[in-house]
Write a structure and sequence with these properties.
The chain is α+β, with helices and mostly antiparallel strands. It is built from two helices and eight strands.
Length: about 120
Amino acid sequence: MLFRSKGVSSEHEVSIAGTLIGKKKTPHFVKMFEYDIDMIPTKYMAFFRYEDKPGMIGKVGTILGRENINIASMQVGRKKIRGQAVMGVNIDGSIPDTLLEEIKDQAGIDYAHAIEL
């Protein structure tokens, strides 16, 4: 069973798809912005869309680490080398909006959004 959702704002259109996997029917995100990922939802998550180039994962991780925000797991999806990519991270706590803006500015990311379930 596949679930899809799309949200539109004045700045962005966001689409996500999920499914239930295995005997325990564990939820998984399987698409974000039409990029394939495999991510189990947790209480705290953040999603980033950016140009796929070396160092992007490190930039995000370094900024989060500096602020003592631990990454529990991470998934990256892309359609082609050096094209656009999406990163989803499961984290141990919330990310303030000001820190998301800093990540966007310092890492050159065009979309950053944190979710707390």
